[in-house]
Structures are given as C-alpha cells and as structure tokens.
Amino acid sequence: MGVARLATGDAHAAEGLIRRALAADPAAHLQWFNLGNALVAQGRIADAAEAFAQATGRAPGHFASWFNLARARADLDDLGAAIEACEHCANLQPDDPSALTELGSLRFRRAETTLLVADFDLVIDILRHALTLPDPPAATVHNARLILGQALSRRRRHSEALTLFQSAQRDAPDDLDANINLANCLNSMGRLRDAAPHYERVARLFPAHLPAVSSAISAANYASDFDALPNARWRDDLMRLFADPRRHRHWPNPRVPERRLRLGYVSPDFRDHVAMRLLEGVLVSHDRERFEICIYDAAVFRDLRNRELRAHADLWREIDTLSTDESERLIRADGIDILVDLAGHTSGNRLMVFARKPAPVQVTWLAYPGSTGLPEIDYIISDPFTTPPDCEGLFSERVWRLPVSRFCFSPPQGSPESRMPAEDMPPTFGSFNNPSKLNAEVLRLWARVLDAVPGSRLLLKYGALDDSSAREWMRSCLTAAGFDLRRVEMRGWTRYLDALDQYADMHVALDPFPFCGGLTSLDALWMGVPVVTLTQPQMAGRQTEAFLRCLGEGDLVAEDKDRYVHIAAGLVSDRQRLVRYRAGLRESMRRSALLDHVRFTRDLETALRGMWRAWCEQGGTQQQVVRD
What we know:
The protein is 51% helix and 9% strand. The protein is an alpha/beta fold. The strands form two sheets. The chain has a seven-stranded parallel sheet, with helices on one face. Helix 22 links the parallel strand 11 (508-510) and strand 12 (531-534). Helix 5 (63-75) packs antiparallel against helix 6 (79-92) and helix 7 (97-114) runs parallel beside helix 9.
C-alpha cells in the first residue's frame, strides 16, 4: 500500500505505511529501500540516505539500494561516500551502463575539484566503456556523451569532445546541457561564430538560466558585426528576466559616511587565475583601519593560491555550495556595506545573489569588461580611457571612473627578461589571444599588415591550438582572409612563464577587435613588446588602448584600419625603436599606475568611499548619477 501511495504522489502517506511495515519486519531491506524513496520524494535527502544505507547493510547485493544511496550522497555533496556507493554498483553489475555513467559523473565532479590529469583520464576510461555496452537507455547515452565530452575538453581534446556534443545536440536539439556544452566547446576551439547560435538558442529556450544567458551576453562582445547600442539594449532586456521580487530595498547598515566599511568581494576565481593578478595587490594594500575585507569565495577548485590569498582578508566565506538564498542571507547577516562583483558575465558568476540586493551599495569590477545589465548593481568601476563620456549610454550601472586605470597588474614572480628576437628572424607579428577574438575582419586586416611588410610572418599561440581540429579550422579562416599559410606559425599551450618567454619570438603584437586583449596585452607590454590596437566604441575593445595611454604610448593606438596597418608596418621595420621598447617598456610599467598597487588601491578606496557617501546622502534611495 505504501508503494502504491508513493506511485500516486502521496509521499507523506506512503512514508507512514512503509514505517508500519518496517515495524512489523525491520530486517526487510526492501522496506528500507521503499522508505528511502518516499523520503526522497519529500526532499528529505539526509533521512533518505540513512534509509538506503540501512537497506544496503541488510542486503549488500541489492543493486538499486546502492545506486540510490550514491545519488542521495551526491545530493548531500558527500562526494567520497557517493563514489564509494557507486563503485559497489559497478562491482555488482560491471556491465550496467547506467551505473558506469553515474560513476563517471561522480568522478568527473571529483576531478573538477582536483583538476588532476589522472582523475579526468579515469573518467574518460569509465565513460568510453559505458558507451560501448549493448542497449543502454537513451538518457544514459545522452548523459555519458555530455560528461565524457566535458572530461575530454578538460584534457584539451576538443575535437573528440565536439563530436560527442554534436551527437547529443542532434538527438536532443532543445536540451539545455547539449546546447551549452556544444557552444562552450566551439568557443574553446576559437569558433565563436559557430558557438553564438547555440548560446542564443539556450537564452531563448531557457531565459531564466543565468549561465547560458551570461554566455550569450559575453559571446556577443566577440562578433565582428558588433553594434554597441543595440547590444546593450538586448543585454538589458535579457537581464530584466532575472528581476527578483525578494530583492531588498531597506538595509540596517548605519548611514555614517566616514565609519569603517565592510567590503565584500564575490568571485569564483580566488585561485591561480588571471583575475587574481589584478586583485592581489589591492587585497595586500587595503587600509584595514578604514575598510574590513570580506571574501565570498565561489571557487569550485581551491589551490595553494587560494590559501595564500586568505591571509589578506578579515573574513573568508566559502559559498560555492551555497544556494542563492543561503548566500544572500549570509551576506546580509555579515552586514556588508559595499558588495563588489568581480566576475560579471564570466563563468561561475553569482549575479543572482546580486539580484537580491543584499548590500545597500553594489558594484561590478575587474574580470568582465562591460556592463552586467543588472539594475541592482549600482556602479561599474572604470577609467577615463576605457570608458570615455560618450560610452555612458552602454551601461545599466552608473560609471565611476578611477583617475588613471581601472585595474593594477601584478607580474608573475620569476618573469623572464625581455629579449629582442634574433637578428636573422624575419619581421614577425604575433598574437597570443583567444582565437575566438580573431574574427574574419581581424584576420583580413592582419593579412593587409603582412602584405605591407614583404617577408613578414604571423605567430599565433593559444592552448586550443593544440587540437588538430582547432588548427584546421584556423587554417581555413586564415586562407579565407587571404593569408599564405607558409607565413603563419601556430603554437599551443605552455606554462605561463614559458609563454612569456616566447614573446621574444615576435617583434610587434597585433591586438584584435572588437574584443581586444586584456591580460594578454599586459603580458606583451611587460615583455617589452609594443601592441598595436584599433580604438573601439565599447569597454571590451578599449582595454589595450587604456594601457597604452597610461604608459604614454598613445601613438600605438590607431583610429582607423589604414592607420593600424601604417603603425604596425612602420614599427616592425624600425629596429632601433623596437630595441628601445624591449629595454624600456617594463620600467615604464613599473613607474606607471599599472603597477603602483598602493596608489591604485587608494584611488579605489576613494571611489568606494564616494559611493558610500552618496548612498548616505540620498537617505538610502537610489539615484542615477555619473561621478568621476
């Protein structure tokens, strides 16, 4: 009767009946198994896990009890116990594709926290075997393809992953995971034009799915036909779908303009990540008498860098496993005065927490060069070069410009010395940017640059170019743009310091558009390599220009494509000037605001204090203002 009640959806009544059966025969493993199912149906996962454990203890050979126990433990984020239970399933039925797929899924979750090559390779072996078994359920095949594809992508085997994702999406064209994984894989291979329709499809089919919407918004910045104002309106329309009626409009924070403020920084990247090369100097330099630093760490993977960063915070909260509700309540209970988003629309963002408005002042800054489109974020931090006055209409936030630069760079310890290319090396232009930024218009312009310098060559380097399919796709794009492929060299992944050393193999760096280089441009300049950039209307296209103007190198900024070709061709032919750059750019950076962490942090703190004063003066209301 209990099982029948459960089948009709009455889980509460089912539980009562099954417990009566258990009272009569507590040793019967099926009673515990059925009780676990009734508890799962009520959302009581911890109790269900205990019931399934009781069932496995009474019948160690009962496959379904181990399988359900594994899923319950996984839902409780007890990954070790979940894997152990699932391995029991695989031992009981070695050729069960569902058990192997579940085990592969759980081990992939483990690999995502360790990032160990061996862990991903084990996942690949398990799921490849699962897909060879006869007559697997369609849902099992679908899940196995997706997880196997993700594991292969982590190993930079994008061509193999692409085939799996294409099959999954072809069989389930409206499936969320199939489309988003296919789009991400294409993006990783530098094929953003092919990825964009899948991002847009997901955003259309699942408008409340923030990761998909964020991916679509971010991908739009790469398009060669980018039009800033329509894009901003489209972005804002998408983000209005995330308006939350539970957002706060009143806060207990004392409206005292000059008191010590609690700053909350939210990011998924508190680890060995490029964003931390822009943040660490700020964390070290903050005035702790005026500001209390609270970190909300959404990182899925934590490494030695994560542990080192903790020394620079007054409060460190791990929120990667917390829901939006739990994160919002925690931040509000901590009494945060100014909450700073460090991710924007990059992967792992927690913009849904910001949509609840847990802090009276909310700000976006750092990793994403553009507006979030979220009305609950009050300010975006920029600078006069990245966001001149005519760009203000592109932001849903109020623009607050720092005096010189929107961030400060921390070069890696042990950086190699800058070196000129060998004297017999032909004139070499280069780009270490994501191939997704190298759209057809960029490549056509770069072909003109090479044509202007007989005997010159182009060096491209990026991790995705390790993949044969990605290299073949890039060759086809280069050919379509008019390149002689004999004048192009492609290189793949190396360690960061080794990649820096390879800047000695180019004379001049070429900046893409409309999404220009960020950290890549800073790396090139740090290694003494001049970067030629084309001025753009939007924030994502003006980062390199901002760096160059900070360094007094505005003559490397082209206002049109003809000027871009003229600057690049003239520069690569002037060896004495190139020698001066190699010898002097690093020192220029050291003397500039780009590396002056104390000066930058004081400017940032002045901006944050100004935002706080404005909130206090407004009596807690929100007002549209732009402050410099």
